[in-house]
Specification:
single chain; alpha/beta; Rossmann fold; 6-stranded mixed β-sheet; 3-stranded antiparallel β-sheet; 9 strands; globular
Length: 239
């Protein structure tokens, strides 16, 4: 089991008050409209479930309310406005103090970061030190994704990762999982939307919140999840 050093601040829960039931995004996504109480998080939480239920919208809302950059990778990037901004007046985050002082929200569209990162590097020669000292345009998509994530992790941070497995082959997935496990042991917190059973099974005792088609979340073990069952069904029976 993962042990945690010290008593860093943690994001404990996400709540909606006076939910208006609007028929437009993001209020109409199943995960939000199905909420009957707070969504609670642990130091390592994985959110799984079918596409379209609102997992990404939830991460965007968490990033907005926690003051994290929504493009991911660096606190220097301005947050773009989005329809999720409308949640700001209705949603509440609960933290165990002190609140994390750094972190990021890495979206699944990581390839859009390359040009912006290289512009930052042109203005500041030391900027790329945070990414291993190499321009992202010189890396493969898998190397790029891993560099953006692992080189920006710091102990005690809050990290929201949206499908980090999208650009990683299995060996790099294991590298990422090992780094996440190490960072959690050092006091960081991760909330991850994932569809990869390989990533989830490589994480050290994650809390898994699985959404059904209606957006209702339930706590499940790895082997109880539809994610695991689907992977086993794809592999077929053992010879």
């Amino acid at each position: 089991m993962t042990t945690h050093r010290g008593s860093p601040g943690l994001l404990r829960s996400f709540s909606l008050r006076d939910y208006p039931g609007y028929g437009r995004y993001p209020f109409n996504v199943p995960l939000l409209s199905a909420m009957t109480g707070p969504i609670e998080f642990s130091p390592l939480t994985v959110i799984t479930g079918p596409n379209g239920v609102g997992k990404t919208a939830l991460l965007q809302a968490l990033a907005l309310l926690a003051g994290l950059p929504a493009l991911g990778g660096s606190e220097q990037f301005p947050r773009r406005s989005s329809p999720v901004d409308d949640l700001a007046d209705l949603a509440t985050l609960s933290f165990t103090p002190p609140r994390p002082r750094h972190g990021f929200h890495l979206t699944s569209a990581i390839h859009h970061l390359e040009e912006e990162l290289d512009r930052q590097a042109a203005a500041d020669p030391d900027f790329l030190d945070a990414y291993g000292g190499q321009r992202l345009s010189e890396l493969s998509s898998g190397q790029k994704a891993l560099a953006v994530m692992t080189h920006r992790f710091r102990p005690g941070g809050l990290y929201l990762l949206d499908e980090p497995e999208a650009h990683l082959h299995p060996e790099r997935l294991r590298t990422l999982a090992n780094e996440i496990n190490r960072q959690v042991a050092e006091g960081s917190q991760f909330i991850i939307v994932a569809h990869s059973v390989l990533l989830v099974t490589a994480l050290d005792t994650p809390t898994i919140l699985e959404a059904d088609d209606t957006g209702v979340l339930r706590h499940v073990g790895v082997r109880e999840s539809h994610l695991y069952a689907s992977a086993m069904a794809t592999l077929g029976p053992s010879p």
